[in-house]
Design a protein that fits this description.
Elements (H helix, E strand, L loop, with lengths): L1 E10 L2 E11 L4 E5 L6 H8 L7 E6 L2 E2 L5 H7 L1 E4 L11 H7 L2 H6 L5 H15 L14 H13 L5 E5 L7 H18 L2 E5 L3 H7 L2 E6 L2 E6 L1 H6 L1 H8 L6
Parallel strand pairs: 3-8, 3-9, 6-7, 7-8
Antiparallel strand pairs: 1-2, 1-4, 4-5, 9-10
Helix pairs in contact: 3-5, 3-6, 5-6
Bound molecules: adenosine-5'-triphosphate.
């Protein structure tokens, strides 16, 4: 579904990404891990055309997407969330969800207001924020704001969903619920997921495959089991206590 081919990104003298290549299969959950500054967010920015890679190309469903703009990317079915949960703080939960629907309105203008309203309610139900539909987003807890951000992204009806550290700042219970929600997004909606995450328990429990970055380079790729046993990864990132 997604092919990342030899992408590099330079910022002045700094090599933030260095010749990174990997693929993501339809229906998979792929984890991207690595130390701070390894290039994970830069990789997301290059995939979603937030900015272009300095070298290399990205293909989505066989089509080259490098060079398109983020709106075109969303219309093709690729959606992301950002590192610090982004919701519209002064809008209600319901209004937040409807902001994500602009893409569908453009792609399929035949949808009626009623159909869109019904869809918005289904999404609120799915991500578990229905009971707060009239609550102003800034009054939600972090866990619910993240659910809402996921709901906004789902309202664009993605095929591939990229999440940048969704469990950041969450307590263990919130993280557990998030993992459950992401599994449902894959199984019930059939959405393919790429996830940047520092919470190793969440990553190892959720992902089919993991790509490890260090100083912009891919240093390993494999199943959670393979990654946890990889000496290079343990040295660079996981540390011995992570495996205890
Ligand atoms: N817009 C930018 N301009 C200059 N340097 C940048 C820019 N974006 C990222 N960098 C640099 O590129 C490197 C990779 O950063 P990036 O944010 O992609 O890492 P990361 O793995 O996502 O880190 P973290 O886990 O801390 O979010 C870092 O050295 C960072 O300072």
């Amino acid at each position: 579904m997604l092919e990342v081919k030899g992408i590099s990104r330079f910022f002045k003298g700094l090599v933030a990404l260095d010749d990174v290549t990997f693929t993501v299969k339809q229906g998979d959950i792929l984890g991207i891990i690595g130390p701070n500054g390894a290039g994970k967010s830069t990789l997301f920015n290059c995939i979603t055309c937030f900015f272009p890679p300095s070298k290399g190309e990205v293909y989505f469903e066989g089509k080259k997407i490098t060079g398109l703009n983020p709106f075109q990317i969303t219309e093709l079915g690729l959606t992301r969330t950002f590192q610090h949960t982004q919701v519209f703080p002064k809008l209600s939960v319901y209004e937040n969800i409807t902001t994500g629907q602009y893409v569908m309105k453009r792609k399929d203008p035949s949808r009626t207001k009623r159909q869109l309203e019904q869809k918005a309610h289904e999404i609120m139900e799915f991500v578990g924020v229905s009971e707060y539909k009239d609550t102003t987003a800034e009054n939600l807890s972090l866990g619910y704001q993240t659910r809402l951000a996921i709901g906004i992204a789902l309202a664009t009806e993605p095929k591939l969903f990229l999440l940048d550290e969704p469990a950041a700042g969450m307590n263990p219970e919130e993280t557990k619920q998030l993992v459950h929600l992401l599994r449902e997004i894959r199984t019930k909606l059939g959405v393919t997921i790429i996830l940047i995450e520092h919470d190793m328990k969440a990553v190892m429990g959720l992902c089919d495959k993991i790509v490890v970055l260090e100083y912009g380079k891919k240093i390993a790729e494999g199943t959670p089991q393979e990654i946890q046993e990889n000496p290079r990864v343990i040295e660079a990132y996981l540390g011995s206590e992570a495996l205890a």
